[in-house]
Model the fold of this input.
Amino acid sequence: MKESMKEIIRVEGVSFSYDGVPALLDINLSVHRGDFLAIIGPNGSGKTTLLKIMVGLLRPGQGRVWLFGQPLEDFKQWHKIGYIQQKATNFDPIFPISVAEVIAASLNSVSRPVKPGRRQVRNKIMEALQTVGLESEAGKPMNSLSGGQQQRVLIARALSTEPEILLLDEPTTGIDYPSQENFYDLLGKLNKQKQLTIVLVTHDYGIVNRHVNRVACLNQKLVYHGEHSEFCQSDRFRELLHGGHHLISHRH
Amino acid sequence: MNGSLIFSGLFLRALLAGGGLALACGLLGVFLVLRRDAMISHGLSHVAFAGVALGLALNLMPVIVAILVCLAGSLLILRLKEQARLPGDTAIALLSSGGLALAVFLMSIKKDFGAELMAYLFGDILAIAPSEVYLAVGLALLVTAGIFLNLSRLIFMTFDREAARVSGLSLSRLDRLLVMMTAVTIVLGLRIVGLLLVTGLTVIPAASALQLARNFRQTLFLSSLFSLLSILGGIVLAYVFNLPASAAIIFLALLIFSLSHLAKRWR
Ligand SMILES: Nc1ncnc2c1ncn2[C@@H]1O[C@H](COP(=O)(O)OP(=O)(O)O)[C@@H](O)[C@H]1O
Ligand SMILES: [Mg+2]
Done:
């Protein structure tokens, strides 16, 4: 198999219910190396649930998940996976922690074949902060940064362990529009230049569509899963453009 | 001040045991406060009290029995939180009333140890025996080592549980470690400041540190420092002015909290 075609995540026949109330029905989906997949759908359509199943936070009621070709139950190389949960910047505002400490805590915790030394950790932190343009903020308290900056610190934290895939759940909620554009440009750059595979949950497809190559539309079931270019010619997309807002509602 | 008093074995023993306890409380308290688990020490102190009563009733070393009972209680609190779907503070309330009920019951059937048990209600650091000092210092160092060996993991888990889980950390193992270290620290604290004040010992220094610290390293440092100042200062004050040590310790801790809070507001 060609390296670029390598399957990083495979979701097969997955269904999930919360206390008997179904949230996902028979989802089949795969993510390949280098993909930038957008998962879109209205609120309550199961996007967060699907992402949590992909990273092992929830066990599917039915179906199976493979990560890097291994069944999720046996998967151990968690440093290959970066995950940024929904409302990730809603952390405790009194938590006393500097930007560098946020990243160091993760870097020093993750089990790896070789444990990085103190100096190496320092370098990795600065490298990751440079990637997101925050190297001058390393010593600042996390809670003194803006929402957009905090979100970039969390990206830096995820990048510091050199993951092969990044999964993000509505990462720009509550961030002003120019910062959102910067943020998605950064994701686009990481995807194109560093071959980082990205899975992005969003309900604002407009702002990401120029970076994305694959789309999954979710509404308990997978309504569409395929190429972004084909998606643009589909009825779903036209509905989306012409006010058919049932795919991108903004109920909160 | 009488020089011979300063160097009396009694006083030195109290300082040694107090210093060890201070370090463990200062470090652990930061995690308890940030995890919103401050009341766990309240609950466990009651369980530990029952353990002391049991030890006295059975004529065994009360501190050892208390540690065993308290360790079991700490794991039970975690279980109840996870499996009975009880909110954390409810699980704690179940256990603390159960603990106190057991202590009262034991006291009623064996009336002769009531006075001894009272020492654990209010603490009595200046009466600590040499064997207990070694135990206290040893256990306090064990707790301190447990925190430092797992420092990054504990910080990661406390700051961002979900991300920590996805990074492959075993959170249930870390939760158990924290609650068991709390159990041990509480029993030591019971001997020194007593059931009624031990929660303050684990919480106030960390709360003061949070007023001033700008990062985690500073928080741990300040919390340990404030804890040391309160406990050692309290013992000295108690010794010199013949005050109850537990009250002196908590007053000092609260004074430091007030000053930290004022310093924060003036900054
Ligand atoms: N912890 C939970 N307990 C019960 N129901 C939940 C829970 N989380 C989500 N749900 C329900 O599952 C459905 C899917 O939720 P979610 O995956 O969060 O959707 P989305 O991320 O697309 O908004 C919703 O109907 C939601 O109310
Ligand atoms: Mg969601």
